[in-house]
Automatic annotation (TrEMBL), chains A, B:
EC code(s) of this entry: 6.3.4.21
Keyword flag Ligase: yes
Protein name: Nicotinate phosphoribosyltransferase
GO function terms (MF aspect): glycosyltransferase activity; nicotinate phosphoribosyltransferase activity
Domain of life: Bacteria
EC primary class: ligase
Keywords for the protein's UniProt record, in alphabetical order: Glycosyltransferase, Ligase, Phosphoprotein, Pyridine nucleotide biosynthesis, Transferase
PTM (free text): Transiently phosphorylated on a His residue during the reaction cycle. Phosphorylation strongly increases the affinity for substrates and increases the rate of nicotinate D-ribonucleotide production. Dephosphorylation regenerates the low-affinity form of the enzyme, leading to product release.
Domain Nicotinate phosphoribosyltransferase N-terminal, chain residue ranges per copy: 17-141
């Protein structure tokens, strides 16, 4: 995939500088020592879920495939590294030819995960794998955090559509990735045009308070909006007095008015009152959209309210209290010597700081109970027991440095829904709790 | 500033789609109604600081100037808007020629702010101003959140250098902006090469646990690293046993070893033990860097530890509990009619939902007490009292659509330090509290 296909405005010509300096200095030292080309396997996993969360959601995989394919050191980047004296000339020469040529396996996008799940496995020489740590973790940690929040909100909304509208609350490009991750997690649409442009996510939006304030009266504003956008539009009814605004809205647009939006106040109370008023005015099909600092709990509290859609901003794009995951990228195996046929041996950090890792290249399977409901995340490094062979979670994502698992975003969205539906019922409780599946190492 | 100057890899060809759809539909409706060209003023402000915070920090201003200058609808964007039926043909024609031609004033980057502070004022026609809402808020809300966390950490570090190393915990481009904002807030350097490339921030980094695990022994790894990076390098000493690693490190590098890094365990205890061991080994000048889930509180708790530098990741790039600000972009004044000379009149939303705004174009001044210490953030819409004329906070940032206040990042960093130093002493308490200055409206 070349740059043009990545499209404006979220293209970056190369992802190679989304890298912590120590990856390059390690490369230099390993090249110097002759150990850079040992075969290695790195795994992405997390030691724990965010406090109280029942499951995690893998997101960003599609972006990650683009990022790895576009990881190359173009001349301006090499010039910078030379001028900043980050690494020496032999290392710069090696970087000039860098392309990842290894293998990536992992949980497919949308899949759920638990503590210890081998979410991603990157195999290749130390030199080619070590460089990818930061960009891989940036993408997975950010996107998975948003998708997990989105999934909880989708559960709370119970089928009512969710609109992502948090662009203004996060970095402008993080926002585009957040829209994408929210869609994977179950959102229906976004206000962010860049997300529509880049990922084809349906976009929505009609007007803000500024539009009402621009005009000499609320009636003028509604008339202008309906005149241009049609009666199917959504009128914002809380700039001045909601009751008066709803009356004016139906007078201006007629009973076929598409929707009204409420952005402040006690949404439960106001939604009931507005529904009653709309029905009295004959606007039975006019929908009610609510937006105002919603999160999964506020959405759940509106389950009985006559609300037709939720717009969610801040709490979605900040992961509803958990804006990042704690995924790490750790070497779990390396060749026992320098030859191309030296066998892989497990490795792991062993200090006493509580950051223990499990060495070895892992497989993972989700074991179902007799009813087909998942009951454990089983992780091993040896042979896969026969009864788990049909339940393995990892798939091949890149082979010889090329993505082999690109898919439509809807496929990841559908996969997430299906994976969540196979978890025990307590997975979708919003209250704080333990991971809904235990992790078993065998 | 053209694209090339913006540089790789964080260039975006245009910022015009970092926009919520409703901005374009409002534009369409206003063009249709003939109200699009009324003169308006929009202000960015926040109704409150994050709970417990004593002051806010303006950051992202420099990025914002680039974003507004690069806000234009190139043909591929217009094609997308047409195909997705976001707006009609007359609106597309208007967008094709769009350039912001108005004025931007605001608090300069690095300045502190309080609830109600008019952080930014955008003046122009409704059409040209309304489109900028999302991109302006994205940048200010993200960058200011990071800078505020960085500032608290800098206070806690009390002069010891702080290294930004959170790239892996946030979106890959948010990370670059986070490095920049952290530098404004008082950090010294970053691990993120893209931030070094794009903004000239000093970069640092040497090695991770993977480097030790790659080698057949810790001694081999240290020998390889010192052989390539020199004795001034930083050796990571907590892969296996810290005491043994420190002994090996000094044996390999000699007493001129640059530094050791500790990334796990009870940092207070371990730092003391390592310092003692280094001194016993004659490595009196070898520094100690600590990194491991640090935040401002952990940093403060290490004030008496023999630590020479702090590396901070997750908690910095997630705003230490507050990953976004709650800045909003509200129309505060508009022309009372359609003519070019119609006077501006204040406007504000008036519904009862608690989201009150104060209408009118504001000035702000920070009033000092007799000792020169700030005692109030004074905000008004009328004439500036003579005694406050020398203490106004707003400056001109763009004139006729062109940036007039570009500056080196160090200028914003120095300004922040100076502004913080003029606040009452309680500003730098880490404990939860009220904003350290009250906001007075006159």
């Amino acid at each position: 995939m070349d740059d043009l296909e990545l499209g404006l405005p979220v293209t970056v010509p190369s992802t190679a500088l989304f890298t912590d300096q120590y990856e390059l200095t390690m490369l230099q030292a390993a090249l110097h020592a002759g150990t850079a080309h040992r075969r290695t396997v790195f795994e992405v996993f997390t030691r724990r879920l965010p406090a109280g969360r029942r499951y995690g959601v893998v997101a960003g995989t599609g972006r990650l495939l683009d990022a790895v394919e576009n990881f190359r050191f173009d001349p301006p980047l090499l010039d910078y590294l030379r001028e900043a004296r980050v690494v020496d000339e032999p290392t710069l020469r090696w970087l000039a030819d860098y392309r990842f040529t290894g293998t990536v396996r992992g949980y497919p996008e949308g899949e759920v995960y638990f503590p210890g799940s081998p979410i991603l496995q990157v195999s290749g020489t130390f030199a080619e794998c070590v460089l990818l740590e930061t960009v891989i973790l940036s993408i997975l940690n950010h996107d998975s955090a948003i998708a997990a929040a989105a999934s909880r909100m989708a559960v709370a909304a119970n089928g009512r559509p969710l609109i992502e509208m948090g662009a203004r609350r996060t970095h402008e490009l993080a926002a585009v990735a957040a829209s994408r991750a929210a869609y994977v997690g179950g959102f229906s649409s976004t206000s962010d045009l860049a997300a529509g442009f880049r990922y084809g996510i349906p976009t929505v939006g009609t007007s803000a308070h500024a539009f009402t304030l621009l005009h000499d009266s609320e009636r003028d504003a509604f008339t202008a909006q309906v005149g241009s956008l049609g009666t199917g539009t959504t009128l914002l009814v809380d700039t001045y007095d909601v009751t008066e605004a709803v009356r004016t809205a139906v007078e201006v647009a007629g009973p076929k008015l598409g929707a009204v939006r409420i952005d402040s106040g006690d949404l439960l109370l106001v939604a009931h009152r507005v529904r009653r008023q709309l029905d009295e005015l004959g606007a039975h099909d006019t929908r009610i959209t609510v937006t105002s600092d919603l999160d999964e709990y506020a959405i759940a509290s509106l389950a009985t309210a006559p609300v037709d859609a939720y717009g969610v901003g801040t709490r979605l794009v900040t992961g509803s209290g958990h804006p990042t995951c704690s995924m790490v990228y750790k070497m779990v195996a390396r060749a026992s010597g320098d030859g191309p046929d030296a066998p892989l041996e497990p490795v792991a950090k062993k200090s006493s700081g509580g950051k223990l890792s499990v060495g070895g290249v892992k497989w993972a399977a989700r074991r179902p109970d007799a009813d087909g409901v998942a009951e454990a995340e089983v992780i091993g490094t040896g042979e896969v027991p026969g009864e788990l062979a049909g339940h393995l979670l990892g798939v091949e994502l890149m082979r010889d440095g090329r993505a082999v698992a690109r898919e439509r975003l809807d496929a990841a969205r559908d996969r997430h829904r299906a994976a969540r539906d196979l978890l025990p019922l307590s997975a979708t409780q919003l209250s704080q709790g333990e991971p809904v599946l235990r992790t078993e190492y065998i």
